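Blinded run. Sample ID left blank on purpose so nobody reads anything into the name before looking at the predicted structure. Input follows.
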Amino acid sequence: MRRLRVGETVVGLAVVVAIAAASLAVRQRQAARDDSPAADVPDVSRRDATLDLGDLRIVVSAGPRPLLAFARNRFRFRAEAGGAPVALAEAVVSFTMAMPMGDHRHALVPASDGWQDAEAVLPLCPSGKRRWFGRLDFTLAGRPRSARFAFDLAAPEGRP
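Blinded prediction complete.
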């Protein structure tokens, strides 16, 4: 009887390890498929950032600061090639985070001085996580391109 319990325990532990490994593999595959951004992307929570794509530099500005959940936040982009402003064609910014929070895709509209803007109202994650990732997709010289950035959302007053 004791051997049977040891055998059942070993089999049970093997099943737990297999389930954990499968869960990890699914999460990694999901992250790769979603093209989840790395943790080392520029952060625009406190200051503007420059996304350097080699032949193209994109300044990203976000405000008002601090960026607030459930409030209208403006994201501004100014692309430069060779020091001159460049308009990004078919430009769309999308926002994601660690867990699914809905579809947040916004087309950029032309603004003054070579800037292109989008406004977004983003929710506060129920898990308490504040880190969001932005992905700017656009076309330049007929070629699709993208750039990533990160930011943290603060809770509105009166919310934890």
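Unblinding after everyone has recorded impressions. The two ends are 54 Å apart (CA to CA).
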